[in-house]
């Protein structure tokens, strides 16, 4: 995995450009009422503040409590993170599924180039502080000081690789809030909204009918506001506008995986998407 500074990260052109087919263009067409941001969220000062290593900006001084929790052990934490990434890539079916899907789409992942373990601003919010996908450098990054367990790394990898898959296969405008909303809906739909994960969120609630869709909407809105830095009113409107279409998009996993049995079924059905 890469641990170079942002200025040393190779450009996103190491992936072949996706085919400009008619379906991809229509899927990403701007919706009436879509809000266009002045810049991609990953180019913003808020992104650089959360993930200083990404943009070569200095992080804030670490507190005594964070030192006690071990956040200053950057080298050791990065080594553990890289070991967890390798374990996930070699042994865990969902990550292997995503890597095979990217390869089949013409965007093979090189661990040393496309995955990075690095230090971020300390925090416990899995959707914000554990890492993500940086489209400017075409890298999935893991916050080694925050995502410290195999489970943390696994969840962050899946979300990040889904973002990479969308960048590879779709015409995504990262300034278009509708496109960002669709990405967040897809990630929440396929990775974040099993029952226990939902109840652990501040917006979770007990219920049955319609709860998965409510979870996906709530998670997408939350991440738009806190990880994409979109105004609350704009985020809510974008999610509602694109939800029906984007909630039905299950590629490349093929199903919502809430259990080990679902993951195994997704792996067995990979041939349906052309990536065995």
Automatic annotation (TrEMBL):
<dbReference type="GO" id="GO:0005739">
    <property type="term" value="C:mitochondrion"/>
</dbReference>
<comment type="similarity">
    <text>Belongs to the peptidase M76 family.</text>
</comment>
<feature type="region of interest" description="Disordered">
    <location>
        <begin position="1"/>
        <end position="32"/>
    </location>
</feature>
<keyword id="KW-0378">Hydrolase</keyword>
<dbReference type="GO" id="GO:0034982">
    <property type="term" value="P:mitochondrial protein processing"/>
</dbReference>
<keyword id="KW-0482">Metalloprotease</keyword>
<dbReference type="GO" id="GO:0033615">
    <property type="term" value="P:mitochondrial proton-transporting ATP synthase complex assembly"/>
</dbReference>
<dbReference type="GO" id="GO:0004222">
    <property type="term" value="F:metalloendopeptidase activity"/>
</dbReference>
<dbReference type="Pfam" id="PF09768">
    <property type="entry name" value="Peptidase_M76"/>
</dbReference>
<protein>
    <recommendedName>
        <fullName>Mitochondrial inner membrane protease ATP23</fullName>
        <ecNumber>3.4.24.-</ecNumber>
    </recommendedName>
</protein>
<dbReference type="GO" id="GO:0046872">
    <property type="term" value="F:metal ion binding"/>
</dbReference>
<keyword id="KW-0479">Metal-binding</keyword>
<dbReference type="InterPro" id="IPR019165">
    <property type="entry name" value="Peptidase_M76_ATP23"/>
</dbReference>
<feature type="compositionally biased region" description="Polar residues">
    <location>
        <begin position="1"/>
        <end position="14"/>
    </location>
</feature>
<keyword id="KW-0645">Protease</keyword>
């Amino acid at each position: 995995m890469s641990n170079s500074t942002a200025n040393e990260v190779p450009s996103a052109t190491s992936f072949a450009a996706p085919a400009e087919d008619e379906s991809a263009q229509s899927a990403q067409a701007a919706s009436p009422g879509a809000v266009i941001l002045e810049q991609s969220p990953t180019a913003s000062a808020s992104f650089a503040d959360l993930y200083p290593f990404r943009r070569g900006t200095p992080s804030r001084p670490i507190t005594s409590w964070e030192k006690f929790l071990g956040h200053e052990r950057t080298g050791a934490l990065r080594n553990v993170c890289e070991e967890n990434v390798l374990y996930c890539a070699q042994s865990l079916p969902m990550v292997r599924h995503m890597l095979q899907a990217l390869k089949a789409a013409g965007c093979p992942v090189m661990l040393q180039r496309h995955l990075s373990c690095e230090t971020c601003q300390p925090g416990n919010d899995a959707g914000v502080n554990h890492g993500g996908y940086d489209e400017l450098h075409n890298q999935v990054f893991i916050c080694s000081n925050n995502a410290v367990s195999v489970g943390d790394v696994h969840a962050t990898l899946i979300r990040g690789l889904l973002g990479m898959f969308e960048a590879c296969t779709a015409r995504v405008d990262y300034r278009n809030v509708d496109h960002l909303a669709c990405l967040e809906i897809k990630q929440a739909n396929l990775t974040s909204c099993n029952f226990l994960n939902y109840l652990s969120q501040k917006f979770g609630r007990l219920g049955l009918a319609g709860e998965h869709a409510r979870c996906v909407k709530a998670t997408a809105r939350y991440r738009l506001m806190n990880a994409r830095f979109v105004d609350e009113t704009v985020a809510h409107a974008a999610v509602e506008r694109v939800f029906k279409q984007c909630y039905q998009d299950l590629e490349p996993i093929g199903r919502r995986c809430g259990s080990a049995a679902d993951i195994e079924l997704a792996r067995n059905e990979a041939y349906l998407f052309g990536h065995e």
